[in-house]
Design a protein that fits this description.
It comes from Pseudohongiella acticola. By secondary structure, the chain is an alpha/beta fold. It contains seven helices and nine strands, in the order ααββαββαβαβββαβα. The protein has one domain: Rossmann fold (3-Layer(aba) Sandwich), CATH 3.40.50. Helix 1 packs across helix 2. The longest helix is centred in the N-terminal third of the chain and has 35 residues. It is globular.
Length: 189
Protein backbone atom coordinates (compact mmCIF):
# COMPACT_ATOMS: atom_id res chain seq x y z
CA UNK A 1 0.00 0.00 0.00
CA UNK A 2 2.88 2.38 0.84
CA UNK A 3 4.47 1.70 -2.56
CA UNK A 4 1.23 2.49 -4.41
CA UNK A 5 0.78 5.73 -2.45
CA UNK A 6 4.42 6.75 -3.04
CA UNK A 7 4.13 5.90 -6.74
CA UNK A 8 0.96 8.01 -7.05
CA UNK A 9 2.63 10.96 -5.31
CA UNK A 10 5.69 10.73 -7.58
CA UNK A 11 3.46 10.65 -10.67
CA UNK A 12 1.50 13.69 -9.49
CA UNK A 13 4.71 15.63 -8.81
CA UNK A 14 6.07 14.70 -12.24
CA UNK A 15 2.82 15.73 -13.95
CA UNK A 16 2.71 19.06 -12.10
CA UNK A 17 6.37 19.70 -12.96
CA UNK A 18 5.83 18.76 -16.60
CA UNK A 19 2.73 20.95 -16.85
CA UNK A 20 4.58 23.88 -15.28
CA UNK A 21 7.55 23.48 -17.65
CA UNK A 22 5.30 23.29 -20.73
CA UNK A 23 3.23 26.29 -19.60
CA UNK A 24 6.34 28.37 -18.89
CA UNK A 25 7.94 27.40 -22.21
CA UNK A 26 4.72 28.17 -24.08
CA UNK A 27 4.29 31.57 -22.43
CA UNK A 28 7.90 32.52 -23.18
CA UNK A 29 7.66 31.28 -26.77
CA UNK A 30 4.61 33.42 -27.39
CA UNK A 31 6.27 36.62 -26.16
CA UNK A 32 9.05 36.94 -28.72
CA UNK A 33 11.08 33.91 -27.73
CA UNK A 34 11.03 32.33 -31.19
CA UNK A 35 12.61 35.44 -32.66
CA UNK A 36 15.12 35.60 -29.80
CA UNK A 37 16.24 31.99 -30.19
CA UNK A 38 19.13 30.89 -32.42
CA UNK A 39 17.78 30.82 -35.96
CA UNK A 40 14.33 31.91 -34.79
CA UNK A 41 14.29 35.11 -36.83
CA UNK A 42 15.23 33.11 -39.93
CA UNK A 43 12.46 30.59 -39.24
CA UNK A 44 9.86 33.32 -38.85
CA UNK A 45 11.09 35.00 -42.05
CA UNK A 46 10.68 31.72 -43.97
CA UNK A 47 7.15 31.31 -42.62
CA UNK A 48 6.27 34.87 -43.65
CA UNK A 49 7.72 34.29 -47.13
CA UNK A 50 5.69 31.10 -47.54
CA UNK A 51 2.52 32.82 -46.33
CA UNK A 52 3.10 35.26 -49.21
CA UNK A 53 3.48 32.36 -51.60
CA UNK A 54 0.53 30.23 -50.43
CA UNK A 55 -2.09 32.86 -49.65
CA UNK A 56 -3.75 34.69 -52.53
CA UNK A 57 -4.73 38.37 -52.43
CA UNK A 58 -7.50 39.84 -54.58
CA UNK A 59 -6.37 42.04 -57.48
CA UNK A 60 -7.87 45.04 -55.64
CA UNK A 61 -5.14 44.67 -52.98
CA UNK A 62 -2.52 45.86 -55.48
CA UNK A 63 -2.11 49.23 -57.17
CA UNK A 64 -1.20 47.55 -60.49
CA UNK A 65 -0.78 44.13 -62.06
CA UNK A 66 2.99 44.24 -61.46
CA UNK A 67 2.95 45.80 -57.96
CA UNK A 68 5.12 44.22 -55.27
CA UNK A 69 3.85 42.13 -52.37
CA UNK A 70 4.72 44.31 -49.36
CA UNK A 71 5.84 42.66 -46.12
CA UNK A 72 6.15 44.99 -43.14
CA UNK A 73 7.49 44.53 -39.64
CA UNK A 74 5.49 46.66 -37.20
CA UNK A 75 7.31 47.65 -34.01
CA UNK A 76 10.79 46.86 -32.76
CA UNK A 77 12.78 44.76 -35.22
CA UNK A 78 13.21 41.55 -33.25
CA UNK A 79 14.02 39.58 -36.41
CA UNK A 80 17.32 41.34 -37.14
CA UNK A 81 18.24 41.11 -40.82
CA UNK A 82 16.25 37.91 -41.39
CA UNK A 83 13.36 39.46 -43.33
CA UNK A 84 15.73 41.48 -45.52
CA UNK A 85 18.11 38.58 -46.18
CA UNK A 86 15.58 35.79 -46.64
CA UNK A 87 12.43 37.51 -47.96
CA UNK A 88 13.28 40.82 -49.65
CA UNK A 89 13.52 40.46 -53.43
CA UNK A 90 12.14 36.91 -53.52
CA UNK A 91 9.13 36.00 -55.65
CA UNK A 92 5.58 35.13 -54.64
CA UNK A 93 4.01 34.03 -57.88
CA UNK A 94 4.38 36.90 -60.35
CA UNK A 95 5.17 39.45 -57.65
CA UNK A 96 8.41 40.54 -56.04
CA UNK A 97 8.34 40.65 -52.24
CA UNK A 98 9.60 43.87 -50.63
CA UNK A 99 10.28 44.36 -46.93
CA UNK A 100 9.77 47.51 -44.84
CA UNK A 101 10.12 48.30 -41.14
CA UNK A 102 7.39 50.41 -39.56
CA UNK A 103 7.31 52.13 -36.18
CA UNK A 104 4.71 50.63 -33.86
CA UNK A 105 2.69 53.82 -34.17
CA UNK A 106 2.54 53.72 -37.99
CA UNK A 107 -0.83 52.00 -38.30
CA UNK A 108 -1.68 53.98 -41.45
CA UNK A 109 1.47 52.57 -43.06
CA UNK A 110 0.47 49.06 -42.00
CA UNK A 111 -2.70 49.38 -44.08
CA UNK A 112 -0.51 49.63 -47.18
CA UNK A 113 1.19 46.29 -46.48
CA UNK A 114 0.02 42.88 -47.63
CA UNK A 115 1.61 41.05 -44.70
CA UNK A 116 2.28 42.72 -41.36
CA UNK A 117 4.47 40.88 -38.88
CA UNK A 118 3.56 42.39 -35.50
CA UNK A 119 6.59 42.44 -33.20
CA UNK A 120 6.25 41.22 -29.63
CA UNK A 121 7.10 44.83 -28.64
CA UNK A 122 3.46 45.54 -29.52
CA UNK A 123 2.04 43.08 -26.96
CA UNK A 124 -1.21 44.44 -25.55
CA UNK A 125 -2.03 46.34 -28.76
CA UNK A 126 -3.43 43.47 -30.86
CA UNK A 127 -6.98 44.84 -30.94
CA UNK A 128 -5.78 48.35 -31.86
CA UNK A 129 -3.49 47.08 -34.62
CA UNK A 130 -5.91 44.57 -36.12
CA UNK A 131 -8.70 47.15 -35.93
CA UNK A 132 -6.58 49.63 -37.89
CA UNK A 133 -6.11 47.18 -40.80
CA UNK A 134 -9.50 45.44 -40.51
CA UNK A 135 -11.05 46.72 -43.75
CA UNK A 136 -7.90 46.27 -45.84
CA UNK A 137 -6.43 43.16 -47.47
CA UNK A 138 -3.67 42.89 -44.85
CA UNK A 139 -2.59 39.56 -43.38
CA UNK A 140 -1.44 39.92 -39.76
CA UNK A 141 1.14 37.53 -38.27
CA UNK A 142 2.75 37.48 -34.82
CA UNK A 143 4.12 35.37 -32.00
CA UNK A 144 2.26 37.48 -29.42
CA UNK A 145 0.31 35.20 -27.06
CA UNK A 146 -3.29 34.55 -28.18
CA UNK A 147 -2.80 36.61 -31.34
CA UNK A 148 -5.43 34.81 -33.49
CA UNK A 149 -7.87 34.67 -30.59
CA UNK A 150 -7.49 38.44 -30.06
CA UNK A 151 -8.18 39.44 -33.67
CA UNK A 152 -4.92 38.56 -35.45
CA UNK A 153 -4.86 36.15 -38.36
CA UNK A 154 -1.83 33.89 -37.88
CA UNK A 155 -0.12 33.17 -34.58
CA UNK A 156 3.26 31.46 -34.25
CA UNK A 157 4.21 29.60 -31.08
CA UNK A 158 7.30 27.65 -30.11
CA UNK A 159 6.87 24.01 -29.25
CA UNK A 160 9.25 21.49 -27.75
CA UNK A 161 12.49 21.32 -29.62
CA UNK A 162 12.72 23.71 -32.51
CA UNK A 163 9.21 23.23 -33.90
CA UNK A 164 6.91 26.17 -34.47
CA UNK A 165 3.15 25.74 -34.22
CA UNK A 166 0.90 27.81 -36.47
CA UNK A 167 -2.53 28.89 -35.25
CA UNK A 168 -4.69 30.37 -37.95
CA UNK A 169 -7.94 32.32 -37.82
CA UNK A 170 -8.99 31.15 -41.28
CA UNK A 171 -12.47 32.67 -41.12
CA UNK A 172 -10.99 36.12 -40.47
CA UNK A 173 -8.43 35.65 -43.25
CA UNK A 174 -11.15 34.76 -45.75
CA UNK A 175 -13.40 37.57 -44.49
CA UNK A 176 -10.57 39.95 -45.45
CA UNK A 177 -10.74 38.65 -49.04
CA UNK A 178 -7.64 36.47 -48.84
CA UNK A 179 -7.58 32.85 -49.97
CA UNK A 180 -5.52 30.27 -48.08
CA UNK A 181 -4.39 27.58 -50.50
CA UNK A 182 -4.95 23.97 -49.53
CA UNK A 183 -1.19 23.27 -49.76
CA UNK A 184 -0.64 25.61 -46.79
CA UNK A 185 -3.51 24.11 -44.82
CA UNK A 186 -2.14 20.59 -45.34
CA UNK A 187 1.38 21.70 -44.37
CA UNK A 188 0.33 23.19 -41.03
CA UNK A 189 -1.93 20.38 -39.88
Amino acid sequence: MKNILASTMVRRCLMIGLFSAVAATSAQAQQGQIAASDGGGDAIARFVMNFGRFIDWPDAAFSSADADLRVCLLGENELGNSLNQIVDGKRAGDRTITVSNLAGTDLAGARNCHIVYVSSSETGRTAEITGAVADSHTLTVSEIANFPEDGGMIGLAGERGDRIAIRMNRALIEQTGLNVREQLMRAIQ
